[in-house]
Amino acid sequence: MLTVNGPRLWNSLMEMAKVGATAAGGNCRLALSAEDFAGRALFADWCHQAGMSLDTDAIGNLFARRAGRDPQARPVVMGSHLDTQPAGGRFDGVYGVLAGLEVVRSLNDAGITTDKPLEIAVWTNEEGARFTPAMLGSAAFCGVLPLDKALAMEDAQGISVATALAGHAGSLPLGRPFDAYFELHIEQGPILEQASVPIGVVTGGQAICWLNVRVTGQPAHAGTTPMHLRRDALFAASAMIRQLEQLAEAFAPHGLVTVGQLLIPGSSRNTIPGQVRFTVDLRHHQDAQIAAMEQRTCALLQQVAAQRGLTVDIQPHWFSAATPFDPDCIAAVGQAVTALGYPHREMVSGAGHDAIHLARHCPSSMIFIPCVGGLSHNEAEDALPENICMGADVLLGAVLGRAGG
Ligand SMILES: [Zn+2]
Predict the structure, then answer these.
(1) Which domains does the chain have, with CATH numbers?
(2) How high is the pLDDT of residue 315?
(3) Ligand 1 center to residue 28 CA distance, Å?
(4) How close is the Cα of 353 to the center of ligand 1, in Å?
């Protein structure tokens, strides 16, 4: 079973981490900044040394290509992103890109030419920290976001993607057909580490349902209004939120419920709150289950409001359906990890990734490895060298299985 050169991959990760390094040991390579372009240039140098050719598309997605025996075949693509959060870590995204490079270097060492061409994709503005939305480059590539809209997005300084890209966009067509897409990534959560399992075979992305809730009662004097005559919107909201936590338990372990924002408009310490607004974020990997969660959320909020003589208004804000990954790609990862004998478990991606868009374009799947303490989007983000190496071994096996070697 062919494996990668772990120390070489680790060294490349540490070299890349010097580009846009922060004082606290993290990275700041905001999308299409000087640091991001410096990171891309370093990656391009390494790809040239590995015998690959490079080109970009109209939104600046960068593709490094290794020819296969069949030049007509669609490429098997690995990839992720090189941009980071403003106070980001050394592994989020970068790992998937440089592991792709390590796969190519290892194939070079072994003298293996695949039937299908291989490509490494560096997607533009995955983080969404400089330009919104996140995963902008892959969205434009997959036709989820029209190119003109993507190019017109502006950062906080009013600089557009088109301006920031100047000289870095190329002529590769958007939406080119791919044979398959594999993205290797740190988990960005604590599940694998807690379970002491080095490899996550990712079966898909979760559905997300966002609701805006407004509870309306009666504002009144805190000193003159007896408790039983109050219609306190905040006590009602807190009863609702307590029940939402119980709702999550009813959909455990896959159902997730978060109330991330709560506003008391015009709040005052000696006035009974007359209105409270809060957000609800529901997640589940099955569309049917998230629909059930939404239905039960609405029912329980209405029930609490009715019991307390208040009104509640619930507005859907955003919905994103679950993204099941391709069974053949999941199987290719499963076969690779089984052949290697590495402990693994199937899991769902909790975060958004470029692979979520790619899954609508071509057969796709992801591989996760643990990150220390489950930390990500954090300068202290870390991963163990042995896990870094194991994840890349699995990527190599899955890609070889798909590309034919
Ligand atoms: Zn990422």
Answers:
(1) 6-205+322-403 (3.40.630.10), 207-320 (3.30.70.360)
(2) 98
(3) 13
(4) 6
Determine contact, residues 48/87, Cβ cutoff 8 Å: no
**197 CA distance to ligand 1 centroid (A)?**
20
Query: Which H or E element spans position 79?
Result: strand 76-80
What letter would DSSP give residue 172? B
Given a cut of 90, whether residue 185 has pLDDT beyond it is yes
Ligand 1 center to residue 45 CA distance, Å? Answer: 22
Please, are residues 260 and 280 in contact by the beta-carbon 8 Å criterion? no
Q: How far is the CA of 142 from the centre of ligand 1 (A)?
A: 18
CB of 123 closer than 8 Å to CB of 141: yes
Task: Give residue 97 CA to ligand 1 midpoint distance, Å.
Answer: 10
Question: In the numeric block, which tokens belong to residue 262?
Answer: 């709560």
Beta strands (DSSP E) in 236-343 are: 256-258, 262-263, 271-272, 275-284, 311-320, 323-324
- 110 token code pair: 């072994």
pLDDT at 405: 80
* Cα–ligand 1 centroid distance for 63 (angstroms): 17
Q: Are strands 323-324 and 199-205 parallel, antiparallel or unpaired?
A: antiparallel
